[in-house]
Amino acid sequence: MSTKPVLAAILSVSSTSLTDDEKHFFAQTNPLGISLFNRNINTPAQLKALIKEIKETIGRPDVLIAIDQEGGRVRRLKEPDYPSYAGQQTIGRLYTETSPETAKEACRLHAALISQDLHSLGINLNYAPVLDLCHPDTSPALSSRCFSSSPDICADLGGIMVETYLNNNIIPCIKHLPGHGRAVTDPHLNLPVVTAPLQELEADFAPFKKLKNTPCGMTAHIVISAIDPETPVTQSPAAIRFIRNNIGFNGFLISDALDMHALKGTMAQKAQTTLNAGCDAVCYCGGNLAEMRQIADTGLFLSEKALERFQKLTKIFQNPVAPVPTLPKENITKYQELIGKIIPYEETYDSTEVLFRMTR
């Protein structure tokens, strides 16, 4: 196992296999992990080989291999190689339109089936579930990804997903702390500003407070004026203190993607400001080696406290309490029957395409 300090960054790769330059860079810089995107995926065999190549290149058994596999339009593993998974909004509707028990069962199957897919490839971290509330004017970048407008339903279903992922030795990552649902602007493109008073925002904070013991979370690229009127949560020491002290979250805190246009400055400046604000690590998604070199050149490694939190994460997938059960195919059928009780969300906005345009 490498004894080098760990770069406080989850980085990304440009294509379906590592280039020689990427191999050299990752071997030298020892990043915390790698996030995977559509551009990295052709077939299960190819993806499994890429993940093996990443782990061997970085050379640590605890390297994080992360993915956005929420379900609905935010899913990197797609048909026909993988089952179709519903968006969280679809599951949330079951809670009120069918029954809470149906929604909870759908949630358990959803997370268990996705866990099985991730394990088959060597992925150990899923950027899910979303705990943001859905408001009438929530940005279309987010609305279909929210369970509900009810804090109790979000916490209830989110808690089941968190528990199921943990029981299946997958790291869940709640997002977007401390609550992104009131943002009407897409942070991929611009910086959202939320001007509601703190008292009104308590509903948005509530699911995160209830699930504050989740081992991993992701920050929101939004300004919450009542906490810090000028700086996005991700880069605001006051907002990170709010997440730690008022929300009570003490897990590993990852930034949302640095390459979103909500954050300004060079990639090095974005990384430095984010880590100095109190995030444990940054996330970079663009696969651009020059920009990743900027991040590495900051020389910002996991702090002592961040390393402690990271070591708790690694126990989830390195020292499982019990082996991951293999689910019979009947579970997929059962899941599809439950989800089929309501009309699926109609896709009108593809954040993956926004991200692609953003990185061109």
Structure report:
This protein has one domain: Glycoside hydrolase, family 3, N-terminal domain (TIM Barrel, Alpha-Beta Barrel), CATH 3.20.20.300. It has helices at residues 20-29, 44-58, 88-97, 100-121, 151-167, 198-210, 237-247, 267-277, 289-297, 304-318, 330-339, 351-358, and strands at residues 7-12, 31-36, 64-67, 69-71, 74-75, 125-126, 171-172, 174-177, 193-194, 216-219, 223-224, 252-257, 281-283. Helix 1 links the parallel strand 1 and strand 2. The protein has 360 residues and is an alpha/beta fold. Helix 3 packs antiparallel against helix 4 (100-121). The strands form three sheets. A nine-stranded parallel sheet has the order 7-6-3-2-1-13-12-10-8, sandwiched between helices. It is globular and about 55 Å long.
Quick recap:
This protein has 360 residues and is α/β, with parallel strands linked by helices.
Supply database-style keywords.
two-stranded antiparallel ribbon, 360 residues, 13 strands, 9-stranded parallel β-sheet, alpha/beta, TIM Barrel
Tell me the quaternary state. Answer: single chain
SSE sequence, one letter per element? EHEHEEEHHEHEEEHEEHEHEHHHH
Strand content: 5-15%
Q: Helical segment tally?
A: 12
Widest sheet: strand ordering: 7-6-3-2-1-13-12-10-8
Residue stretches low in confidence (pLDDT < 50, at least 5 long) are none
Alpha-carbon distance between the termini? 36 Å
